[in-house]
């Protein structure tokens, strides 16, 4: 049941929220605000107490301070994500720092708030988290990290944390972004692109899947076929990734490539249905590199395919999914540099 609570916020009565802070006053204020919005708050004064509660009863959302005696908030976040993967974690801290923000992204935090708190704002975030809404952390953290430094290299390090946060959800996609960047860079060089464009492709390839941070874990790592609705969620990730990068001025060009990396040469791709050379060249390169890595590596739904199979699929899809010119470059590169192909742990000779 939903209605209107204090300050006109949307209320809910379905989520148990565990508030963790070594200051009893903060726990009390947050608990009152959450109860007034229909949530079921519980409190713990330490990370250890929080783990005890989590072990004995279901909790939908954990709201925890970072700096506590004993178990640090990031350690609690890691323990919750490991032992209770469906539980969302919201962080609270008195200091905004790029180091913990990047680590929080990598560990899968849902959101964060800087003290002093607006307790009703935190409670509303807990409601959204309990309803499995996509977490706003990637966009907020990326803005914060880049606002605190104008150095592109630091921005790159922070956005790599975004990519790792996505890949941490699924053990089958660990290092996927780095491997896609590996293939994309070699293809861009083989096509004769200048150094600046090669670097643009490299960074966009590293970040191409960050939009998946908003896809529910249950969909992202589902072992069986996706429903129509679930596939629609997956198809949103290029646009969502571009939206994240669009708000970071140093990545405006990369945002275009991220948005276009699932467009198809024939016009049957997404999200914009672009055709042929209207698709940015870098996006066409990443499309091929992404597909190569996906075919060569094991996934929840498939065994790894052989290099011979990958070559055949690229050839069959030239002019449909892929730019024929880039397919030709990929085939030539495979022939010239077989030692640079990232070999799968096992081969499926004919699949």
Structure, explained:
The protein has 351 residues and is α/β, with parallel strands linked by helices. The chain has two domains: 3-133, Response regulator (Rossmann fold), CATH 3.40.50; 171-340, Hypothetical protein af1432, CATH 1.10.3210.10. The chain has helices at residues 24-36, 47-56, 73-83, 98-107, 119-130, 137-147, 152-167, 176-190, 195-206, 217-220, 228-235, 237-246, 252-260, 281-296, 307-317, 324-336, and strands spanning 3-4, 10-11, 16-20, 40-44, 61-65, 88-93, 111-114. A five-stranded parallel sheet has the order 4-3-5-6-7, with helices on both faces. Strands 1-2 form a two-stranded antiparallel sheet. Helix 4 links the parallel strand 6 (88-93) and strand 7 (111-114).
In short:
With 351 residues, the chain is of the alpha/beta class. The protein has 2 domains: 3-133, Rossmann fold; 171-340, Hypothetical protein af1432. The chain is 52% helix and 8% strand.
Helix-strand layout with pairing:
Elements: E1 3-4, E2 10-11, E3 16-20, H1 24-36, E4 40-44, H2 47-56, E5 61-65, H3 73-83, E6 88-93, H4 98-107, E7 111-114, H5 119-130, H6 137-147, H7 152-167, H8 176-190, H9 195-206, H10 217-220, H11 228-235, H12 237-246, H13 252-260, H14 281-296, H15 307-317, H16 324-336
Parallel strand pairs: 3-4, 3-5, 5-6, 6-7
Antiparallel strand pairs: 1-2
Helix pairs in contact: 1-5, 2-3, 3-4, 4-6, 4-7, 6-7, 8-9, 8-14, 9-13, 9-14, 12-13, 13-14, 15-16
How much beta, percentage-wise? 5-15%
**What name is given to the CATH topology of the largest domain?**
Hypothetical protein af1432
State the helicity in percent bands: 40-55%
Do you know the CATH architecture of the largest domain? Answer: Orthogonal Bundle
Determine the N-to-C terminus distance. Answer: 50 Å
Number of helices: 16
Radius of gyration over all CA atoms, rounded: 22 Å
- Unreliable stretches covering 5 or more consecutive residues: 1-13, 346-351
Instruction: Give me the count of strands.
Output: 7
Average pLDDT, all residues: 84
Query: How many domains in all?
Result: 2
Going by helix content, strand content and strand pairing, the class is alpha/beta
| Name of the top-level CATH class of the largest domain | Mainly Alpha
Order of helices and strands: EEEHEHEHEHEHHHHHHHHHHHH
Query: Can you list the strand order of the major beta sheet?
Result: 4-3-5-6-7
Which sheet architecture does the biggest sheet show?
A: 5 strands, parallel
CATH superfamily grouping of the largest domain: Hypothetical protein af1432
Sum up the overall morphology in one term.
elongated
């Amino acid at each position: 049941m939903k209605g209107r609570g204090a300050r006109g916020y949307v209320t809910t009565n379905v989520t148990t929220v565990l508030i963790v802070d070594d200051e009893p006053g903060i726990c009390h204020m947050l608990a009152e605000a959450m109860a007034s919005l229909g949530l079921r708050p519980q409190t713990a004064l330490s990370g250890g107490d929080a783990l005890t509660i989590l072990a004995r009863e279901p909790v939908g959302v954990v709201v925890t301070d970072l700096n506590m005696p004993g178990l640090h908030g990031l350690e609690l976040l890691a323990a919750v994500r490991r032992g209770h993967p469906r539980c969302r974690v919201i962080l609270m801290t008195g200091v905004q720092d790029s180091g913990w923000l990047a680590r929080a992204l990598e560990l899968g935090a849902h959101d964060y708030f800087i003290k002093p708190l607006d307790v009703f704002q935190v409670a509303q975030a807990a409601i959204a988290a309990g309803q499995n809404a996509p977490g706003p952390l990637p966009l907020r953290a990326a803005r914060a990290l880049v606002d605190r430094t104008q150095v592109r290299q630091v921005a790159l390090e922070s956005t790599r944390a975004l990519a790792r946060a996505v890949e941490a959800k699924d053990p089958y996609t660990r290092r996927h972004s780095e491997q896609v960047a590996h293939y994309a860079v070699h293809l861009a060089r083989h096509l004769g692109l200048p150094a600046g464009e090669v670097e643009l492709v490299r960074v966009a390839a590293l970040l191409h899947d960050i939009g998946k941070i908003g896809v529910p874990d249950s969909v992202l790592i589902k072992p069986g076929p996706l429903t129509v609705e679930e596939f629609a969620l997956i198809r949103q990730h290029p646009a969502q990734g571009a939206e994240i990068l669009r708000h970071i001025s140093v990545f405006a060009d990369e945002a275009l490539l991220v948005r276009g990396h699932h467009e198809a040469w024939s016009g049957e791709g997404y999200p914009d249905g672009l055709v042929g050379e209207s698709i940015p060249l870098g996006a066409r390169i990443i499309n091929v590199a992404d597909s190569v890595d996906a075919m060569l590596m094991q996934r929840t739904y498939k065994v790894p395919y052989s290099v011979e199979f990958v070559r055949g699929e690229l050839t069959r899809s030239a002019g449909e999914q892929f730019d024929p010119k880039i397919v030709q470059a990929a085939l030539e590169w495979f022939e010239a540099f077989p030692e640079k192909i990232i070999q799968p742990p096992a081969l499926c000779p004919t699949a």
